[in-house]
Structures are given as C-alpha cells and as structure tokens.
C-alpha cells in the first residue's frame, strides 16, 4: 500500500522546526527547516512524488537500489533525488529518505542556528 498524504505530512512536520510552505504554487508542498528546503511533495501526483536532499554518493546509491527513485525533478540532480511513492517503496525507506534529508540540511546550517534549533527541540528545554 502506498503512503497517504496525511501520513507523509505528519512525518515531515514532526521533525523539529519543520515548516510547510508553498513557494512554487499550490501543487507542491515544500518543507523547510531554518528557511532551507529539505523535502518537496507533489501531492497532486498519482503516485505521490517526494523529492529530498542527499549526499551525491547517496543519490546514486538510492537510484541503483530502487527503480522508483530517480534524479531530482527540477532540482540539482547531484544533490536531490525524487521518489515515486508507490506501494513497492517501503515506508521505512521513505522515512529514512525524509529523515536523512532533514539531518543533512540541519548539519549544513551555521553553528549558531544549528545549536539554537537543537536546544529548541529538546524536551523541557534541557
């Protein structure tokens, strides 16, 4: 069974300080952390299409492992990949793609912004 839109949105928005935006129009949900994109979801496509950021060697690896994963659609093909979210792509794999993209973007933030984000996402402000 392919993932549904609500499950994807919930997972993406559950990441600390994640925000849903529509800078390219209503047909593409763009998820950002600290004003940096980490996921794009073409929610009107069937199957849904998810684009995420990855290290260049990971982009190639994912494409070799799964026929549903290809170069980033309208994105830098070296740093982004796009997955067709059909029933053959496991939910665990989709979650890993989203989580890895988020972590990559957070790791690239300036130290001060990264530390503020990490402090804000800790329970009880610890």
From TrEMBL:
First and last residue of the signal peptide: none
Molecular function terms, GO-annotated: DNA binding
Keyword DNA-binding appears in the UniProt entry: yes
Record-linked Pfam families: YjbR
InterPro entries referenced in this protein's UniProt entry, alphabetically: YjbR (IPR007351), YjbR-like_sf (IPR038056), YjbR/MT2646/Rv2570-like (IPR058532)
Keywords noted in UniProt: DNA-binding
Protein name per UniProt: MmcQ/YjbR family DNA-binding protein
Organism: Pseudaeromonas paramecii
